[in-house]
Amino acid sequence: MPRTIVNEDLLFSEDTLSTFDTAYPIEMYIKSVDGFEGDGDFLSKFGLEIRDAVTLTVARRRFSEEMEDIETTKDIGRPAEGDLIYLPLNGKIFEVKFVEHESIFYQMGSLQVYDLRCELFEYSHEQLNTGIDVIDSIETAYSGDMNFYQLLLEDGGGLKFEDGSFIINDGYRIEDTDNQANNEYYTTQTQTLNFVDWSESNPFGEI
Questions:
Q1: pTM score, two decimals?
Q2: Which of 10, 99, 140, 175 is the most exposed, having the fewest neighbouring CB atoms within 10 Å of its CB?
Q3: CA distance 5 to 23
Q4: Confidence at residue 64, expressed as pLDDT on a 0 to 100 scale
Q5: What does the alpha-carbon distance between residue 72 and residue 108 come to, in Å, rounded to a whole number?
């Protein structure tokens, strides 16, 4: 799934509004056959983290053939860092972190394959419009994009305020998709258990 840059932050070299509008099936060889690489599963101060990694190999000729058959992707010369790969064996999505184009060093006088070093993808409200239900359902279940709750007209256009911002339904709650954003729950629990107050009015606790 090639990444489409929407609003790149030139300072941090990232794009929080990336979209993935297409997906192409292609065969790859799993180079790390003994199991997933990376740090694996461990408990951190943020809870359970799964940092699985995998190295996939794709033939340069096969990748070029797949891209040449699709008119809209002729400009894609090779797999790019930031693209996503859906692995149907475990139903997870991996993000390409690095593309090694000289893995087999000029075998038979040319470069034969790309090695894709991938890590488990951490979804952060990107738009997934690939047309594949098992992938697009991730956005439906976990996206916190408030534009899903904007009021629409009969023609599909959204209602806007005078400043141009969209009118959002009152039913929108970020807590429904992100449990860590449930500030009301945490506030209630801390008051009940008499925890130190870390609110904005007193960031250094009770004195």
A1: 0.68
A2: 10
A3: 16
A4: 85
A5: 32
Helices of type H across 37-182: 60-68, 133-142
Name the 3-class secondary structure at 97.
strand
Contacts of 121 by beta carbon, 8 Å cutoff, 6+ apart: 84, 92, 93, 94, 95
Query: H helices within 32-182, ranges in order?
Result: 60-68, 133-142
Contact 143, 129 (CB under 8 A): no
d(CA 143, CA 127): 8
Of the two residues 73 and 162, the one the predictor is more confident about is 162
- Return the sign of the alpha-carbon dihedral for residues 131, 129, 177, 53: positive
Please give the angle made by the CA atoms of 21, 25 and 30, to the nearest 5 degrees: 120
Comparing CA positions, the residue from 105, 152, 148, 108 lying closest to residue 125 is: 148
* Residue 72, pLDDT above cutoff 70: no
Q: For residue 173, count other CB atoms closer than 10 A to its CB.
A: 14
H-state helical runs in the chain: 60-68, 133-142, 183-192
pLDDT above 80 (res 175): no
pLDDT at 28: 92
* Residue 107 DSSP SS3: helix
C-alpha atoms less than 13 angstroms from C-alpha of 5 in its C-beta half-sphere: 10
Reported residue count of the chain is 207
Domain limits, the chain = 19-142, 146-192
